[in-house]
Amino acid sequence: MKTEPIICVDKLSRRFGDFTAVDQISFSVERGEIFGFLGANGAGKTTAIRMLTGLLRPSAGEGKVAGFDIYQETESIKKNIGYMSQAFSLYTNLTVWENIEFFAGIYGMQFRDIHQKGKVLVQQLGMENMASSLVADIPMGWRQKLAFSVAIIHQPKLVFLDEPTGGVDPITRRQFWDLIYEATSSGITAFVTTHYMDEVEYFDRVSIMVDGRIAAMDSPSGLKDIYNVRSMDEVFYQVARNQSPLS
Amino acid sequence: MISIRKLYKTYKGAAVPALNGIGFDVRKGEIFGLAGPDGSGKTTLFRILATLLEPDQGMILMQDMDVVREYRKIRKIIGYMPGRFSLYPDLSVSENLRFFATIHGTTPDKNFDIIRPIYESLEPFKHRPAGKLSGGMKQKLALCSALIHQPSVLLLDEPTTGVDPVSRKEFWDILEDLRVTGMTIMVSTPYMDEAARCDRIGLIRHGQIMALDTPHGIIQQFPKPLYSLKAPNIRKILPQIKDHKGVDSCYSFGNSLHITLREGYAPERIFGNHGEMCRTGFQWDQIQPTIEDCFIQLMHTHEN
Amino acid sequence: MKRFNAILWKEFRHVFRDSKTMLMLFGLPVIQILLFGFALSHEIKKAPILVVDQAVNASSHKIIEKFRANEQFELVNLARNIDEIKAEFFKGRIQMAVVIPVDFEASHYASEPAEIQLIADASNPNIATNLVRFAAGIIREIEREWSPQNRTSIAIRTETSMIYNPDMSSATTFVPGLIALILLLVCVLMTSVSIVREKEQGHMEVLLVSPMHPVTFVLAKATPYLALSLINLGVILAMSIWILHIPIAGSMVLLFIVSMLLILTALALGLWISTVTRTQETAMMFALLGMLLPTLLFTGFMFPIENMPVALQYFSFLVPSRWYYSMANDIMIKGLGFGAVWKEILILGGMTILLLGLSIRGFKHRLI
């Protein structure tokens, strides 16, 4: 029996005045997938993600996230997803443990669950001796890993990652992806945006947005075949420049 | 052009120094890249070069002027683009340019030739408030503002962070065109692939330089042969390979693994014969390292 | 509920870790209570008065002793003729004059009501009313003492008049204080916030790395608020004169000049605040909480400074609006000229120069 996709949108649009930020996008994401959502700045990615996370009401189209409707059931959506962005993840003037407590509480976890899961999280990350340090005082690489773990501490079905590895050193980046792989192999779906083209290879499928529309969507190897190039860098370049696959 | 000697800087209340005895030279007319992750000291160094911070110890000479003592003169010859967008979001593109030109004692028309190729893509938006531009456009505008007074030294602190790959590529094309004018350009970036487009690179970590050379030179310094391995379920076999006693380092690069081996181990022994898709389904090849491979290798060596 | 708790605990931690906010949250109420308790009173205490004794006889001496002995009054001078009254008021040395007429004793025995004249400074109508009331009370006492049990009581009539602000309008005392408050707050707040905003939003980085001189920057930042404040001043004065009908006894030009001086002091203060704070929030708190309270308490238009403990009276010297208020009062209500205000002008000028000096030294040529 095929399980319902974790995200399913049909002709989703969003207009701001007479500017169309998102123009009738349709796609679906299966459970446990690592789905890449790429696009140039200003292509409409952020707007699309806001609609999927229940933060912005669409102008037209339909959509379901984690089984809930994106118009009527946004509160349920929020309960079932995790979110991590480069712009903001953790409170720097709270300690590691306090951040865990806070976000777990926000996600509606029970007190003893918080305590238990938090301990496990800290152990898994190997951060036992940093647990009472302020986040401001721990190295950047650890922060990203912690932020991700906190984003999924309530075991959501779906986690949105907005440029999660920006600026981090190459080794930590890979450790981060190890964490993502672990999470997805236990059934969590990852919806990721990134500007590192080599990371795109880790995705099961990728979509590229240009001017509010989805201009290309397939697995990384599929896209490379279609555009007859050897790297995702070149795929992106061609798609963004609106070049047809056969040129 | 720029001489940096034994620079130390620790922020108040910080446990570790931001800059730990760093020193190197930048030659006139070259594009020098400083590549390293967040927290490695790039921004601190750039701020000191831009005369915005004083080092605790050490000296910097720029065009034979002491950057710390003669900061007023230095400010006349440098163009600075900080890590975050610092133009006025509510002023338009042309208003911002005019403002910064005036602050530097010139007009947008005077040195227009330098910024012309960059400005071309901004021109259709010249009345739009700068805050409403896309990331790539903002960076171009900030670059124009830094160039408007024809500086001898251009300091760009992470100019392409958060910008999509296409705009990044365009930005680097612009930088290469600028080099032709004889300007000395210092760029910092966390993207190792961009670093490869510089004339010379310094790999920076924890406030120190790990390696400094031309991209080619750094790659030459890679101590061992590097192998790339492709396989159908590469993620699953990653831990197995890592734990193999013959493997020194193993890191994923997109859909392949980059592997170095210990002394005395041959790749054929571990992966099967070269060129064949043997029973194990492995396909391996010896490859030339990229800058990122070099960075990882240096980190790896420093950790162990 | 869990979410509520989570956010609640987080906020507590944020607040307790921020020592500046803690200081303000807990320190300020304590200071306020102390200040309000000690500083503020409308009571009459050692109010300086002048007694003009035109009679110079046993009866008048008794009256003088009565006033001298009373703790609420302080007899700063004893005069013979009424010409001295104006001079003493002019110099601001007395708040009330008691005039005993030449025929006082005679009237006493002639069982015609005797008359004592009370002249009070109505610049502060509250104080004036209280002074007169107390003086009248003392005179009632004298009346009673001098009336033996079985004789008809001696009557002493008091005739009261108010000098300065004869209409006893409280608006008249209020308006100069209000002007000071508005000018001070607007200039200090807006200047400091506008400069700090450049720091906070990152524009300062690129501005510093340019040949632009800090003085140019600062002047350009402050001038709009100077202009705005002058317009503000004009509007307030116009409304005071035409809508509230407040008389301006003295020179408008002089009033404008001293007001402009206050504006300059306020701008310098705003400038100094911008050199010692790094975020707009801190600058605003500094300006509002640091300025609002002292200005309200120590300018002198809400609570008379003379009634405060000596320590606080000295403290009020630090508050620029206090000097302005005294000048504005002298000019608007008493119609005095440059001769009366030159000292305060010097003081405010000195404050401005000091603040400018501190700011220039504190202006960071670098980011940190």
Quick rundown:
The complex is a heterotrimer of chains A (247), B (304) and C (368). Chain A has 247 residues and is an alpha/beta fold.
Q: What's the layout of helices and strands?
A:
The complex is a heterotrimer of chains A (about 250), B (about 300) and C (about 375).
Chain A: E1 7-16, E2 19-29, E3 34-39, H1 45-52, E4 60-65, E5 68-69, H2 74-79, E6 81-85, H3 96-106, H4 111-125, H5 140-151, E7 158-162, H6 170-185, E8 189-193, E9 205-210, E10 213-218, H7 220-227, H8 232-240
Parallel strand pairs in A: 3-8, 3-9, 6-7, 7-8
Antiparallel strand pairs in A: 1-2, 1-4, 4-5, 9-10
Helix pairs in contact in A: 3-4, 5-6, 7-8
Chain B: E1 2-9, E2 19-26, E3 31-35, H1 42-49, E4 57-62, E5 65-66, H2 71-77, E6 78-81, H3 93-103, H4 112-122, H5 135-147, E7 153-157, H6 165-179, E8 184-189, H7 192-195, E9 200-205, E10 208-213, H8 215-220, E11 226-230, H9 234-243, E12 247-253, E13 256-261, H10 267-271, E14 283-287, H11 291-303
Parallel strand pairs in B: 3-8, 3-9, 6-7, 7-8
Antiparallel strand pairs in B: 1-2, 1-4, 4-5, 9-10, 11-13, 11-14, 12-13
Helix pairs in contact in B: 3-5, 4-5
Chain C: H1 2-17, H2 19-39, E1 47-53, H3 58-69, E2 73-79, H4 83-90, E3 96-100, H5 104-109, E4 114-121, H6 125-146, E5 156-163, H7 170-200, H8 203-208, H9 214-242, H10 252-276, H11 280-298, H12 310-316, H13 320-332, H14 338-362
Parallel strand pairs in C: 1-2, 1-3, 4-5
Antiparallel strand pairs in C: 3-4
